[in-house]
Design a protein that fits this description.
Helix content: 55-70%
Number of helices: 24
Strand order of the largest sheet: 2-1-3
Oligomer: single chain
Number of strands: 3
Order of helices and strands: HHHHHHEEHHHHHHHHEHHHHHHHHHH
Structural class: mainly alpha
Number of domains: 1
Radius of gyration: 24 Å
Shape: globular
């Protein structure tokens, strides 16, 4: 009886929540143009609840919360190394057999020789290094160590970056809506901000330490970089240098977090194009651009020096030197032999594949990006409608959108070139891009609909379903996450949801 009551109550709340929300004035009448102090307070509260929902679960899985650190405490070790005055991670020596290997990156050879090594570290000239970007160390781990004298557990940094990503989405989407579609209902803005934030960070809640620390840091930097660049294009002249400088700083720091995500700095080109397009170029503009873009120079020089001191190359972050399950140095050659057509097919398949690993209702598992989060399909279907497509092309930020569309091909292409495959955590490199493009496409749909209320209702409910989908994805046992270690929790949760079985 208890199972039935809880299950029925769960479904009543699940269905009633969007129905009640759509009856409020914030969905029926209040627009972005009507945004006031009360709406601002509610936005802060909604963003706060979203942050808690996305970050609190990060401490649940023992493999990721510091209980069983393994190689996942490298940021902590790197902060210690910097305080000791060197750039390598000191484990008190290296196995002699590893030192004498002709190719220490050959996984089979290491196994045959019985070599002891620290996995997922870069190994070069007899030292272990961290091939993950150093920026999170400088932002969180080193200051924390200096202030408290103890280590910051890695997943806490991921929590901070995830929180900043959520805040960045709320601000970025507000800026886009205010500029492109002031008639958007505030309620629709809220649900899309929550939904797309959760889609972009849900995997970080699953496996928050190390790998997702690097990705979340880079995504955070790029979301805020794009937000500042949009402010640069829309703000008064007196503040434009500030916004350009902040956008450049965040974009440059992304390279020191995770280079594939940092490729999003390509948006700078259309941003500068739009800036020059709106008015004749003057001398003061040159000064503004030099000052505003200077962070790229300073951060770039610092990162190149950091790389050179470790690997004698200004562009090598050390990913090819990693000691992992496979020989990473062999992939570029192998991919070239497989050919561009094969790589493009794998990129396409990563968006549309159907190979769920966990098919029990209501969990969908890990399919393609457009299958798991089908709201992303709007960034394609928008171009099949003549009016919507024309509206997108007239969008003030359309050149920026073009560069983001290009990244949906370029980032996974390069990922596959230098790694074993796509999917899983690699897709978090582009979830945030799909989210921004989908939000922009939905704006175009709503603006050009003959029945705006009906269209906004559809996207409100669709976004709500994607929010639920993101929550369910957290429960899929994968990557040694919470339910992977505690399947009884998944069984109990499922028993309450599917109470009629």
């Amino acid at each position: 009886m208890k199972v039935y009551l809880i299950g029925i109550l769960f479904w009543i709340l699940l269905i009633a929540a969007p129905v009640l929300a759509m009856k409020t004035g914030y969905f029926r009448t209040r627009r972005i143009a009507d945004f006031d102090k009360k709406a601002s307070v509610l936005t802060v509260l909604i963003a706060g609840v979203t942050i808690l929902g996305c970050t609190l679960p990060m401490g649940l899985a023992p493999l990721w919360n510091g209980e069983n650190p393994g190689p996942r405490n490298q940021y902590e070790k790197m902060a210690e190394a910097l305080l000791e005055g060197h750039l390598y991670i000191d484990y008190g020596g290296v196995d002699e057999k590893l030192l004498t290997m002709e190719n220490p990156y050959d996984t089979e050879a290491r196994r045959e020789l019985g070599v002891f090594y620290h996995e997922d570290h870069a190994y070069y000239n007899g030292h272990y290094y961290m091939y993950f970007g150093v920026v999170p160390v400088l932002m969180f781990f080193l200051p924390y160590r200096l202030i408290t004298g103890s280590d910051l557990t890695t997943y806490h940094a991921t929590q901070a970056y995830a929180a900043l990503i959520v805040i960045g989405f709320f601000l970025l989407f507000y800026q886009l809506a205010k500029t492109l579609y002031k008639e958007m209902k505030i309620g629709l803005y809220w649900i899309m901000s929550v939904s797309f934030s959760m889609i972009s960070v849900w995997y970080f809640a699953d496996a928050p330490a190390l790998y997702c620390t690097a990705i979340s840091a880079a995504v955070c930097m790029e979301v805020w970089s794009l937000y500042f660049f949009l402010l640069f294009l829309t703000a008064a002249n007196s503040k434009r240098t500030l916004w350009l400088g902040l956008g450049s700083l965040c974009g440059a720091l992304a390279f020191g977090c995770r280079p594939p995500v940092a490729l999003a700095n390509i948006v700078l080109l259309p941003v500068l194009y739009l800036y020059w397009k709106e008015k004749p170029f003057e001398k003061k503009d040159l000064r503004r651009l030099i000052i505003g873009l200077s962070p790229y120079v300073f951060v770039g020089i610092a990162l190149m020096l950091y790389n050179y001191l470790r690997f004698k190359s200004v562009t090598d972050f050390g990913a090819s030197y990693q000691l992992t399950y496979d020989d990473m140095t062999a992939y570029p050659k192998m991919r070239m032999e497989q050919g561009v057509r094969y790589i493009l097919f794998e990129v396409f398949r990563n968006y549309f594949k159907l190979e769920s690993q966990y098919k029990t209702f209501p969990f969908t598992g890990y399919n393609g990006i457009f299958i798991n989060f089908n709201i992303f399909l709007v960034l394609i279907t928008a171009f099949l409608d003549r009016k919507v497509s024309a509206s997108i092309r007239k969008n003030r930020f359309f050149p920026v959108m073009v560069s983001l569309y290009l990244l949906l091909l370029v980032i996974p292409f390069l990922q596959f070139m230098f790694a074993s495959g796509l999917g899983g955590r690699y897709n978090t490199d582009i979830y945030w891009i799909c989210s921004i493009l989908s939000f922009s496409a939905i704006i175009a749909y709503c603006k050009n609909s003959q029945n705006q209320k009906r269209t906004e209702t559809v996207f409100f409910l669709w976004s709500y379903l994607m929010m639920i989908e993101s929550t369910l994805m957290f429960f899929v046992p994968y990557d040694e996450n919470y339910t992977y270690h505690f399947p009884e929790v998944l069984d109990k949760f499922q028993k309450y949801i599917v109470f009629w079985q």
